[in-house]
Amino acid sequence: MVFKKNNKALPINNVLDVQQKLFGFENFNHGKAKKRNSKTRSRTKETQSKFDVGDYKDPQLRISDEYTNKYYIDEDGIVGSLNPICPKCNSRKVTKWDIYSKNVISEEYCGEILIRRYYCKRCKKTFITNLNDYFDSHSNISNSLKEKSWQIKELDWTSLRNIAKFYNIFYGINISHETVRKTLIVVEGNEIDFKLPKLSGYYGYDAQWIKINKKWRFRHALYDIVQRMPIAELFAEEESNEDVYYLINKYTEPKNRTAIVTDTKPGYDNVMHKLKFKRHQYCVFHFKLNLNKLIKDEINAKKRKLKQKLENTYPDMAKSLIDDQIKEELKPLKNEIRYALQLIYYIFKENSFEKANSYIQLIKANMIHFPVFIKEYIQKTFLPYYKSYLYYLEKPYKNKLDDTNNKTEGYFRATMPKGQKRKFRTFKGIINQIYHRGNGFIKNQKEKQKKQKPKRSMQKFI
Ligand SMILES: [Zn+2]
Question: How much distance in Å is there from the Cα of 121 to the middle of ligand 1?
Fold first, then answer.
């Protein structure tokens, strides 16, 4: 916003000075400001604008063209508002008051600027020229310079120290990595809103625990599976289905809740029902995962039992012989398992809802040949809900709804890889990291979709 007049090179004044005072400008020049204060107040209204600016060296600043309709710089080099309005009562009946000094860092200018303070005749309060277009109220670094650090974080996992070095390389500006850390704080609370302009109505929900400094947070994410972009995230101290409801309810419109994919954790079904989703698809991958784990546990338990029995019966039997014997005895069970899995998994290879549905009858009729533990598991956890595993085949959800929660899980992996977690000391740090990575993720998706020919399901989002 503020440019130095007639300068060809980038003006960088007192950068080292500035660095130490970053984010501390509230108290900066307190003495000087006070001195000005008393002088100003003693003056009459007519001469108020022509007070002594102390030891301020006018750096010959000018306002850049895009802001000349909002701000001006007077003959003393003080930045004022062309249309000052009291932020407390919105009154325009204001007069010039004293000045306020702020050290700023921007691409165009680094150094001190003097800002006009106004007095509101109506509510008797003072306020300073609102420079929020350019500087956040508690920051000395220009917004556009701050955004550079966000953009770098959106790209990869560059360290704070390296980002500080980039500022030096590109702008000749020295700022500390601690300052970079502060510029990266955008999200103050425990929620991230990615502010997608439109949602598809097709979502994925997933959650994971994150541990930082021996403390845990439960990370919830809501994801648009058609646009392939994150919608919102929530970081909670405990795992609770109320938070699941809260997040999805807050970030989706009731009329825009077509379908959602989740894993089969107890309680999700109630939440999605309460949210009035037309379809709640269970993640097929998780079903397979659970079934495989069940089988593995069963086989291991059988193995242990057999081993003990053999060792007790034949104390002198060689270890390798015992292993061979176990293998032999497990063969029939393994064959039964293979048969059952083939039959079960075949459902998910069908590509029509009707066919897959009719296949369920086949499974029911053949379950007598399944190992008992699989039969019981299927009867208890699959058959009562099998449709919830097959909605992805049903029209009109087909090709938009997924059979797994892979997209949301992929987003989790991209925004919080295991190896990166230990780099963070605070949840604020990690939440903001996820925020920047999420925004990078969204940008990448937009670029990809621009390059691709729009698919039918994507058309309305481009
Ligand atoms: Zn006022």
Answer: 7
ipTM above 0.90, yes or no: yes
Q: Are residues 124 and 6 in the same domain?
A: yes
Q: Are residues 308 and 345 in the same domain?
A: yes
| Residue 90 Cα to ligand 1 middle (Å) | 6
The answer as to whether 399 is a domain residue is: no
For residues 445-450, give the mean pLDDT.
91
CA distances from 4 to 10, 13, 144, 251 (A): 9, 11, 17, 45
In the three-class reduction of DSSP (H, G, I as helix; E, B as strand; rest coil), residue 128 is classed as strand
- Whether residue 167 is predicted with pLDDT greater than 60 in this model: the reply is yes
pLDDT for the residue 12: 32
- Full domain range(s) for residue 205: 191-283+404-461
Q: Are residues 251 and 268 in the same domain?
A: yes
Distances (CA, A) of 53 to 35, 98, 343: 10, 10, 86
Total domains in the chain come to 4
Q: How far is the CA of 37 from the centre of ligand 1 (A)?
A: 20
**How confident is the model at residue 423, as a pLDDT?**
72
Q: What is the CATH number of the domain that holds 210?
A: 3.30.420.10
pLDDT digits (tens, 9 = 90+) for 316-325: 888 889 899 9
| Longest distance between any two alpha carbons in the chain, whole Å | 111
Do 90 and 213 sit in the same domain of this protein?
Answer: no
Residue labelled with tokens 């790209």: 155
How far is the centre of ligand 1, averaged over its atoms, from the C-alpha of 97 (Å)?
13
The residue length of the chain stands at: 462
